[in-house]
Design a protein that fits this description.
alpha+beta, 16% helix, disordered N terminus
Length: 472
């Protein structure tokens, strides 16, 4: 498996325009299966730090040591607001870096970073770059980051920003999006990059009680030579590889087409991980709204799906996800699902349908609904085997009619926190009869079909009708 991960990284294609537009949220983008970034040890017994955007939502994380070994990593803490993550590798005697207070930094302070940019092109050898702290605030005077002139590229995310004393004063996080600046300002920025200040990292580390006594004291003397400084940083810095074994369900559209850029896009883009190229973007999601019609549903509601391979009965929980259930029931009562197919089937993961007819004509839908993943999660609903959830795009508030049924316990799809990466997928019911039919669908051979390059059943699985029924 480790060799396969290494191969994936080596053959990933280079796409400079995609790197420049990482800050744009495309409607149909799927989470890339494998990403890489940079991490650094802060204790000798294996605690290390990277950016949250490198590891969030991943179910397998590894670091590659200087001798080429791949070591499994455990995620300990994640701070989405400041884009930081604390991880742990089993072992001892790791080289580590001390962390200094960010107040020690002045405008003009000389800083360096070591990282692993563009490993698919530049290789696995660590790269040293240097510059200065250009500003004590970030984009639009944002106070949590430094602006730095240190050159960074995709793959530098999570790397240490280090002073001449060898102290970490920041974590490399993003760069000014050159393409967006060219389009909006008519000019390409040079050397405008950002790092999260070390004080926010210290706050994160302070949430783990056993860590305080293990952190190194900051150095007081400058390193005499840049090569000596590099050696100290390089010995504590590693390539981090994060993999998602299965892709989350996304509401798919046909034909794929790029939507317009937002009027005021964020200009700072994570240099983050090298990723496999995303799926073709789709139309921009419409504004989410609550289902109308004055419908208020309570308790359990049952829906029977008659398919060409058997009958499936769903129990919907209107108390846990009232808007989602009302939305689904409205679609059932207007015969939205009749004649649609399960167009995406991934064995051992999930089956997804409700959006396309057998000849891949996309059904017209009502406006999307507000995500209720947090509420349903608090009510005890999880993306467990047999659970029914709404498919959506990268925008949490984009679910319309497409839904999926979990073939296994997919914990990584559950709500974690109210952020774009942490919302997960709203579970609103479960299969109470016909799970054998769902399993049968999950074993059907798939290939490309219609506008989709894969995961489409060779023999179409069609929903003949969907009906609200009495309790079975």
């Amino acid at each position: 498996m480790f060799e396969r991960i290494r191969l994936i990284l080596c053959i990933a294609s280079l796409n400079v325009l995609f790197v420049a537009s990482l800050g744009v949220a495309f409607a149909d983008s799927e989470t890339p299966e494998t990403v890489s970034g940079t991490a650094f040890f802060v204790t000798h017994d294996g605690y290390l730090v990277t950016n949250a955007h490198v590891v969030a939502g991943r179910d397998a994380i590894y670091v590659r040591t200087g001798v080429g070994d791949l070591l499994p990593v455990t995620l300990i803490r994640i701070d989405q607001r400041n884009d930081l993550a604390l991880l742990k590798v089993d072992g001892r005697h790791f080289s580590a870096l001390p962390i200094a207070a960010s107040e020690s930094v002045r405008r003009g302070t000389r800083v360096v970073t070591v990282g692993f940019p563009n490993v698919d092109v530049q290789g696995f050898e660590p790269k040293l770059t240097e510059g200065i702290v250009s500003s004590l605030t970030g984009l639009r005077d944002e106070p949590r980051t430094f602006q730095i002139s240190v050159p960074i590229q995709p793959g530098n995310s999570g790397g240490p920003l280090v002073t001449e004393e060898g102290n970490v004063v920041g974590v490399v996080v993003s760069k000014l999006d050159a393409l967006k600046m060219l389009l909006s300002q008519g000019d390409i920025p040079q050397g405008v990059n950002y790092a999260v200040k070390s004080n926010y990292l210290r706050e994160l580390l302070g949430t783990v009680g056993a860590l305080k006594e293990k952190l190194l004291r900051p150095n007081t003397k400058k390193q005499a030579d840049l090569s000596d400084l590099n050696q100290a940083i390089e010995s504590a810095t590693v390539l981090i590889i994060a993999r998602q074994h299965e892709r989350p369900p996304v509401a798919q559209s046909s034909p794929p087409a790029q939507g317009p850029l937002p009027l005021n896009p964020e200009l700072a883009s994570p240099p983050q991980a090298r990723t496999n190229p995303p799926a073709a973007p789709s139309v921009t999601p419409r504004v989410a709204q609550v289902p109308a019609d004055g419908v208020t549903l309570r308790g359990q509601i049952y829906v029977a799906l008659a398919t060409n391979v058997g009958r499936i009965v769903l129990e919907l929980n209107a108390d846990a996800a009232p808007q989602t259930v009302a939305n689904f029931v409205q679609y059932v009562k207007t015969d939205q699902y009749g004649g649609t197919q399960f167009h995406r089937v991934i064995a051992g993961f999930m089956v997804q349908g409700g959006g396309f007819t057998q000849d891949f004509k996309q059904k017209v839908t009502k406006p999307p609904i507000v995500i209720e993943a947090e509420r349903s999660s608090k009510a005890g609903l999880r993306n467990a085997r047999g659970a029914v959830a709404m498919a959506r795009t990268k925008d949490p508030n984009s679910a319309t009619a497409q839904f999926f049924i979990n073939l296994a316990d997919n914990k990584f799809l559950d709500f974690r926190e109210p952020t774009e990466q942490g919302y997960g997928y709203t579970v609103f019911g479960t299969v109470v009869a016909g799970m054998d039919v769902v399993d049968k669908i999950g074993t059907i051979r798939t290939a490309s079909g219609g506008p989709f390059g894969k995961d489409v059943p060779i023999e179409p699985v069609v929903i003949i009708s969907a009906t609200v029924i009495d309790k079975p």
